[in-house]
Amino acid sequence: MRTEDLFREDATLLDCDATVIAQGEGGVLLDRTVCYPLGGGQAGDTGWLVAGERRWRVTDTRKSKEHPEAIVHLIEGELPALGTAVRVEVDAQRRQAHRRFHTATHLLCALLPYPVDGCSITEAYARLDFHTDEPFDKDAIQAGLTRLVAEAHPVGHRWITEEELDANPGLVRSMSVQPPRGLGRVRVLEIDGVDLQPCGGTHVSNTVEIGAVLITKIEKKSAKTRRVVLGFAEPAAGRS
């Protein structure tokens, strides 16, 4: 059982047609989806499944525990029946926040050349934990982040083989999350002239789309861990 993950190739897709192929694990599995499942430090997408006049709220999206290549859409209330044709709609505001924050964390990796031992990307904030005992200069990091956003670097992805990744172990920056193995290929995120590393998350297509992102906090979490927390400069938009 497998879910075609359309978001891997195009993070701007906000809807698609799909069919319910199974029920279980608190929701439904679809044959295809635009919803990103929780993983790699990034929160799962929310949204809706629509069939005619019926609308089901998708409260979260997760990787299936029973079917490694399938994605579970957690649903409020009664589940749509097996075989139901639905329209999958992503919460666009939440998706865009994830895209902006996730790409911004890659800029931080370019500015701070230390291994990453923790990551969280949500709609409200993002954080990266760096494995180092070096002190961080908040103003200098903020200036670098603002510069890289304004320089409008193109952002894209490509696929490399697992052998290519093994030949370039320095591409992997994370100590806590390793690229998935066994598929024969690995997705890498490339910010032109700035950063290249394995990543399966959703991103903007150019750094200028990140907009105004601020370093809200830098913490010493342990003798060997420095945490950087990001927030948006503008207030959160209201929901209808």
UniProtKB/TrEMBL annotation:
Q: Does the keyword Glycosyltransferase apply?
A: no
Q: Is Zinc among the key words of this record? A: yes
Q: What range(s) does the Alanyl-transfer RNA synthetases family profile domain occupy?
A: 1-228
Which locations, inside or outside the cell, does it occupy? Cytoplasm
Q: Which cofactor does it need?
A: Zn(2+)
Q: What Pfam families does the record tag this protein with?
A: tRNA-synt_2c, tRNA_SAD
- Gene3D superfamilies xrefs: 2.40.30.130, Threonyl-trna Synthetase, Chain A, domain 2
Superkingdom of source? Bacteria
Main site of residence?
cytoplasm
Q: Which PROSITE patterns match?
A: AA_TRNA_LIGASE_II_ALA
List GO molecular-function terms, semicolon-separated. alanine-tRNA ligase activity; hydrolase activity
Q: Which UniProt keywords apply?
A: Hydrolase, Ligase, Metal-binding, Zinc
Name used for this protein in its record: Alanine--tRNA ligase
Organism phylogeny: Bacteria, Pseudomonadati, Pseudomonadota, Betaproteobacteria, Burkholderiales
